[in-house]
Backbone:
């Protein structure tokens, strides 16, 4: 068929198809309740779009943090921390990256080759360690576990522990520090998981199924720690991967929802409101939970990217 006729046919076909797509996209939702599971929405129509650009869009850089911009500090003796996000305000950070209201801090930590931490005991707080490089071991409550890339440790309050770098290279990790409620009963043992053997959420669920467990459209999720396993304030700690040329479903968060995305492998685009930011490994952001500002993660490259994610959306029953 001559190219001119093909173009006419194509345009005519689109003219017939587009009205039906428009009708499908603008049909009123049958359910106004946004599904409260952390990783799904019943349908795209329930995402409310702002009528005009939010003036707060221009402040989104306050909600991003990068450990390279932080001064080092020591913790547990030899462990060197550089903060990424710190305690502050979900809506009006007093300074850049001071956005956490329900979590104490998120940091990137290094234990030098051959070094060990001093014996430490967490009081009124717990720490999650996620190792990204190096090798070592951690001992607590008479038990010892090896540390390597993909190791995740939930260190409960009131349990003495020591961490050691057993390799010739620095041991690098991310640390999430959460407060524990006053009457909370922590685990009596540390909990250690290997990301490669952690539970993987189903990938065959329909993206618009409100009961889907795959995550927003394209999230590839591995479960690390949940409330039932001993978290005191947080509800979920997971890793999320995105395949090349995919993105998560853009959506907002309601007040009280504290959700953090830390890039640990590959560079991607972070969408917040109407703006995009490059997100390199070691950077994290938290969405302003105003019910309107949309966010998403976009993998524009040709290899997978990975994030360390943690969230708290509501108070949960304190384990006594």
Residues:
């Amino acid at each position: 068929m001559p190219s001119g006729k093909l173009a006419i046919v194509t345009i005519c076909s689109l003219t017939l198809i587009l009205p039906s797509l428009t009708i499908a996209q603008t049909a009123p939702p049958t359910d106004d309740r946004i599904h409260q599971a952390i990783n799904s929405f019943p349908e795209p129509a329930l995402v409310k779009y702002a009528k005009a650009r939010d003036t707060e869009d221009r402040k989104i850089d306050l909600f991003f943090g990068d450990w390279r911009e932080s001064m080092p500090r020591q913790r547990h003796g030899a462990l060197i921390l550089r903060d990424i996000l710190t305690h502050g305000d979900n809506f009006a950070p007093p300074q850049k990256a001071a956005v956490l209201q329900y979590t104490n801090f998120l940091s990137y930590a290094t234990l030098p080759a051959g070094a060990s931490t001093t014996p430490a005991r967490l009081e009124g707080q717990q720490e999650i360690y996620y190792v990204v490089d190096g090798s070592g071991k951690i001992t607590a409550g008479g038990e010892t576990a090896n540390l390597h890339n993909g190791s995740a440790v939930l260190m409960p309050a009131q349990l003495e522990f020591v961490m050691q770098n057993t390799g010739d290279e620095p041991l690098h990790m991310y640390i999430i520090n959460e407060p524990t409620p006053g009457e909370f009963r922590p685990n009596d043992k540390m909990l250690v998981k290997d990301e490669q053997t952690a539970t993987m959420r189903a990938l065959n669920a329909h993206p618009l199924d409100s009961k889907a467990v795959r995550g927003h459209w394209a999230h590839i999720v591995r479960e690390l720690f949940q409330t039932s396993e001993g978290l005191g304030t947080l509800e979920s700690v997971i890793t999320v991967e995105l395949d090349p040329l995919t993105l998560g479903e853009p959506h907002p968060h309601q007040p009280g929802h504290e959700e953090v995305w830390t890039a640990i492998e590959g560079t991607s685009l972070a969408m917040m409101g109407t703006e995009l930011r490059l997100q390199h490994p070691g950077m994290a952001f938290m969405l302003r939970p105003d019910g309107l500002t949309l966010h998403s993660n976009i993998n524009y490259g040709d290899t997978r990217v990975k994030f360390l994610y943690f969230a708290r959306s509501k108070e949960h029953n304190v384990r006594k």
